[in-house]
Design a protein that fits this description.
The protein has 306 residues and is mainly alpha-helical. The protein has a single domain (2-293), classed as ABC transporter involved in vitamin B12 uptake, BtuC (Orthogonal Bundle). The protein is built from 13 helices and no strands. The protein has helices at residues 2-30, 38-56, 59-83, 88-106, 132-136, 141-159, 161-171, 173-178, 183-209, 221-231, 236-258, 265-283, 287-293. The protein starts with a helix and ends in a 13-residue tail after the last helix. It is a multi-pass membrane protein.
């Protein structure tokens, strides 16, 4: 039973990576902007966060550095697609390619570096509960922050006026513009906020999830997070549940290997990506359902006065 508790704990840890990135992309898409550059932003944030922790020894400074790197790259992307009118798909792919190359170059000096040992995190009393304690209450604080972020985002999007404005920009930017809202500035703010969350996810990978730096260590998680927003039909709570589902599939490969299951390791490594393809294939069988939930202006440029 203890091994199952460890599997649950690892699932929450892995799911946090996907949830943070997917929530950032959700904010982008709610404003009508599709950013395919999550993988590149996460890689640059991973090296920025790791380098910051190596030099300061403080996780939270590393997270701030990762968020800053993600926000800067997202701001550049936002200016290009929102003000200069470049193609969102091509620009996002270019951002991913740039992030992969730049992070590899910047990270050369940090390949052999190690982050300082950190104190173990445990919720007093609750962490000592048999099975439940090791599974749920010995996580890094950012795991619980992510859960709270989901609740905050639900309130923001569906209960607050700024959230309503953000969704209206994603649904009908022309109508929002006619009502006097600065559509392009709102979209840029959403893109930067989304980039910051993708950056936080990247920093979490290199600082907590696998505390080291290796070229390409994000390993497709940015693409899985992108697919997760569609899987969750643009709902924050479904993003969190979907992130834990995919996180569980990721950790299952290690659990099965630990149990001595005679399955090729390459097949187990491919499980998360196979699951992504299967889920998207199942969802695509009902395009009407996706169309109803998807922001109406997703991926469409907006030009004031056109």
């Amino acid at each position: 039973m203890e091994s199952y508790a460890l599997l649950v704990a690892a699932t929450l840890n892995a799911g946090t990576v996907l949830a943070l990135a997917a929530l950032g992309l959700l904010i982008n898409e709610k404003a009508g902007v599709l950013n395919l550059g999550a993988e590149g932003m996460m890689l640059c944030a991973a090296i920025a966060g790791f380098a910051a922790v190596v030099h300061t020894g403080n996780d939270w400074i590393g997270f701030a550095a990762g968020m800053g790197a993600g926000a800067v790259l997202a701001a550049i992307f936002g200016v290009l697609v929102i003000w200069l009118g470049t193609n969102q798909y091509a620009t996002g792919l270019a951002l991913s390619l740039f992030g992969a190359g730049f992070s590899a170059f910047a990270g050369i000096a940090y390949v052999q570096e190690k982050v300082p040992e950190r104190a173990s995190y445990a919720v007093p009393y609750l962490a000592d509960i048999p099975l439940v304690g090791p599974a749920l209450f010995r996580q890094h604080p950012l795991v619980y922050v992510t859960m709270a972020l989901v609740l905050g985002l639900i309130w923001f999007l569906y209960k607050s006026r700024p959230g309503l404005v953000l969704r209206s920009v994603g649904e009908s930017p022309d109508s929002a513009h006619a009502l006097g809202y600065p559509v392009r500035r709102i979209r840029l703010v959403a893109v930067v906020a989304g980039g910051a969350l993708c950056g936080l996810s990247g920093a979490y990978i290199s600082v907590v999830y696998t505390p080291l730096w290796v070229e390409g260590m994000v390993a497709g998680k940015g693409w899985i997070a992108l697919a997760l927003t569609t899987f969750a039909t643009w709902r924050p709570i479904r993003v969190l549940l979907g992130a834990y589902l995919f996180g569980g599939v990721t950790m299952l490969q290690f659990h099965l290997q630990g149990m001595g299951v005679d399955v090729p390791s390459q097949l187990l490594t491919a499980l998360p990506y196979v699951a992504t393809i299967v889920v998207l294939a199942l969802i695509s069988r009902n395009p009407t359902w996706i169309r109803i939930n998807m922001p109406a202006s997703l991926g469409k440029p907006f030009h004031p006065g056109s």
